[in-house]
């Protein structure tokens, strides 16, 4: 099973990614949270790959071994993932996103609904303006495994999201699983409920694990996601 990072040129930058599972199996793309990278899925990916599935976990721009080019709009990350899939010849995939990765995932699904067969959003905040706004973050000392400019840029967008992100939620016509982390999560769980109210085909589950659901309770996360992705109407890319 190949888990060594690879690279591909996509959207004008180099993206690093990891792969698990048979080459001819249906594809699943895992998008990590802010400040982590594709290795964050190392415990989850092998179990999903046993489906069998071909599991891809890219490092988003500004994270890990992918390029740190500046320009950290959510839409740029979306376009990176779209170009990543095109570069690998993947015409349709299941997409799982956690936190920031979940926002990138729903923007991808809004932009190209036919590309996403099923969507999983793990403890993803709704794009509502923060009131009060999140204060400016202070950079930690030392080297970081991500670009600090990415933190500042995503904080700015989190404080004042593009209203179209919410207005276009009706475009997510694919089956969508919403996983909330429960009352100990830093994400207000009423925002998970708000997604459930506007998405045409949403299923909601709460796993009382806090924000890091797949890390804190991997077996429960895998049970929910594995069942959701299991229907047999699957074709390889």
UniProtKB/TrEMBL annotation:
Database matches in Pfam families: Abhydrolase_1 (PF00561)
Assigned keywords, A-Z: Hydrolase
SUPFAM superfamilies (UniProt xref): alpha/beta-Hydrolases
Residues of the AB hydrolase-1 domain: 26-130
Recorded GO MF terms: hydrolase activity
Superkingdom field: Bacteria
InterPro entries associated with the record: AB_hydrolase_1, AB_hydrolase_fold, Carboxylesterase_BioH
TM region positions: none
Protein name, UniProt field: Alpha/beta fold hydrolase
């Amino acid at each position: 099973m190949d888990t060594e990072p690879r690279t591909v040129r996509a959207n004008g930058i180099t993206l690093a990614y990891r792969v698990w599972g048979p080459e001819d199996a249906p594809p699943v793309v895992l998008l990590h949270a802010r400040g982590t990278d594709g290795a964050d899925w190392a415990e989850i990916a092998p179990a999903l790959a046993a489906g069998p599935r071909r599991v891809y976990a890219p490092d988003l721009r500004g994270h890990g071994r992918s390029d740190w080019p500046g320009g950290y709009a959510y839409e740029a990350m979306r376009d990176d993932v779209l170009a990543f899939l095109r570069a690998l010849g993947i015409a349709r995939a299941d997409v799982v996103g956690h936190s920031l990765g979940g926002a990138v995932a729903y923007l991808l699904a809004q932009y190209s609904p036919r590309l996403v067969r099923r969507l999983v959003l793990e403890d993803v905040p709704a794009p509502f303006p923060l009131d009060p706004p999140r204060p400016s973050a202070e950079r930690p000392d030392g080297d970081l495994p991500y670009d600090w400019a990415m933190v500042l840029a995503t904080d700015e967008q989190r404080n004042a999201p593009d209203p179209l992100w919410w207005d276009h939620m009706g475009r997510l016509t694919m089956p969508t699983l919403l996983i909330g982390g429960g009352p100990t999560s830093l994400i207000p769980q009423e925002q998970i409920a708000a997604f459930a109210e506007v998405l045409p085909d949403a299923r909601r589950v709460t796993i009382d694990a806090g924000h890091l659901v797949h890390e804190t309770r991997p077996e429960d996360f895998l049970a929910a996601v594995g069942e959701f992705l299991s229907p047999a109407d699957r074709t390889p890319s």
